[in-house]
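User: I'm new to structure prediction. If I give you an amino acid sequence, what do you actually give back? Let's try with this one:
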Amino acid sequence: MTRPTSHGPPGRPRLKGERLGVVADMAAQAVFRTARADRYQRREQILLAEIHCLWYGSFHTRPVRVLLIRGSDPDTNKPLLSLVTTDLTTPAEQLVTRYAWRWSIEVTFAVAREHLGAGQAQGRVRHAVERTLPFAMYSYTITVLWYVLHGHHPDAAAESRRRSPWYVTKTQPSFADMTAKLRRVIIAARISALDPAQPTDDEIRAVQHAWAAAGTNDTE
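Assistant: Good question. You get back a string of structure tokens that encode the predicted 3D arrangement of the chain. For your 220 residues, that looks like this:
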């Protein structure tokens, strides 16, 4: 990081100012103020500092802002978090909140990879790449919306804790729970859509295999 350029001797003007150093050096010279920001479903008091400078190696002469965030304890010298943004106008507290949104976004990508195979297709042409990942994310969205509107049951978390008692703090269904419920509903619909009579042996085994894959132990 460097300071923005300032007027100097005659000749070609400098593109960058004096080097500011690494984050620790910048934090040692920064002036922190008390602020409040919404992060991770709670409102927190933080210590916040802003520095306008250049990140010459990445953005050349485009100005950036460095945000240094600490906990509310003024005796803590190590920054809790450092952010760099090209947004020069949005209040710093809002930028801290936006950064916290990244957690839910990263979790979405992780579970989409694990349960829907997002990013695992080995496409060799551009159109294939542009289609397979969006399709997986659409599938994720449709699954969550279906579960919220039609699949959720108030006892879902309690039932999950009964099957997996080591998850003592679980209060909300995971995406794995949602996909398990959707599998069971789809298979049941396939069995009963045309003939409400007793299912065949193959259909019963298909349901049992789906339950096993979903991590359930129903035997009804």
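You can read the tokens as a compact description of the fold. Here is one thing that stands out. The first strand starts at residue 33 and ends at 39.
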